[in-house]
Amino acid sequence: GRTWVTDFTYVPKRVVRFGVDGRVEQEFLGPTQYGGGGTMDSRDRRLVYYNGMKFVIDWEHHTWTFDGLLGQPVERPIYWKDHRYLVGPSPHLGPLISIAEEQDHQARLLVQAGKLRDWWALHDVPEIREKFGSLDAGRFFFVWSDQNGDRRPQPEEVQICEDPSDGNWTVGEDLTLLSHGWRVRPSRVLA
Length: 191
Known about the structure:
Layout (H helix, E strand, L loop, with lengths): L2 E4 L7 E5 L5 E6 L9 E2 L6 E4 L2 E6 L4 E7 L6 E5 L2 E6 L7 E8 L2 E10 L4 H5 L1 H7 L7 E6 L12 E5 L7 E2 L5 E3 L2 E3 L7
């Protein structure tokens, strides 16, 4: 009678049970990564973000629903200058940070920064690879800001310098990029 289907993905780790009529009977999600995680929105406690996924809690009925994949590894909402951003990693330091805004159930990247060698665009975007590919990418810190809103890195949107940090970064409550002993403050965010 029933059919069980597993997603062939790391996020979400999901199993769906279908009834004999073909309708979804139940979804099972989990387990989380070691140690758990996720962040509740400070201004809307119905919303929880975890590892690029969005969940909605129904407090009255003690249930929750999986609202979808955001497409980026962001999981912490930050409100800055009355605008809501999603950032990651959270709260742990990592070699690559992201600042995004949620549009149409997707996290639209506005900024990425970190160790140049860890940036996907260095490998996947020919113009970025052409401009920065000859550098010793392990020695450089980069900041990319999507200045024209096309969601695609162009060389003129990227700033680099020798990496002053240990290579691990996170995002502060005012969108400052933080590492051990280093702070990079944004002059503005184009959203």
